[in-house]
Amino acid sequence: MAPPPHQRALLLFPLIFLLLLLLAPPRADAWGKEGHIMVCKIAEKYLSEKAAAAVQALLPESAGGELSTVCPWADEVRWHYHWSSPLHYANTPQVCNFKYSRDCHNSRGEKGMCVVGAINNYTEQLYSYGQKTSYNLTESLMFLAHFVGDVHQPLHVGYEEDEGGNTIIVHWYRRKTNLHHVWDVSIIDTAIKDFYNRSMDTMVEALKMNLTGGWSDDITHWENCKNKWATCANE
Ligand SMILES: [Zn+2]
């Protein structure tokens, strides 16, 4: 028997809501799942023996021993851990440079509440590995692995005015979307589909082959920068 009209209307609400979600221009704020997984799959290979052992010890059981499986986690908890939402990016006042003291804050002006501050913070927490600590180092690791990915998405350090490209509407092939989403998801999706036979692993292998020694000269600078923080962010 069909439900009475008022119940039918109630049943429609979730459907309408779902449709609205699907029709709304995507407003992602982070590499999509694939981006984060690929960043971590590549990074995993470069861990020192000591770091790899610590990662194995800290990973939750659900990760099955693979760091990459937990790398999208920070996006999944950003609405539950409301405070963590501003930690995925940093905004600059329409200038192409980043100043920690000027730019690393949340909308309430709390200092350090940006992606660079988060990387510093979770790196510092992880230094307490092996000692008595009140931090949840499993979460610290999952946050750090995610935010290092985010900070390398060019529009995660962007202009405040256009919300890191979220308000710039563009077409990716025939699909209407926004510039931030193109970087987060569209480029990666299209590349996997068109160049790597729909296989993320093939793309990861290809990216690994393309890693060169460029920037390797910077390592000494990173290791010895003035503030000795993880990110070497100035000021
Ligand atoms: Zn993110």
From TrEMBL:
Protein name: Aspergillus nuclease S1
Species: Setaria italica (Foxtail millet)
Gene3D superfamilies for this protein: P1 Nuclease (1.10.575.10)
Keyword Disulfide bond annotated: yes
Single annotated GO MF: single-stranded DNA endodeoxyribonuclease activity
Signal sequence coordinates: 1-30
Domain of life: Eukaryota
A GO biological process held by the record: DNA catabolic process
Keyword Magnesium part of the UniProt annotation: no
EC number, UniProt record: 3.1.30.1
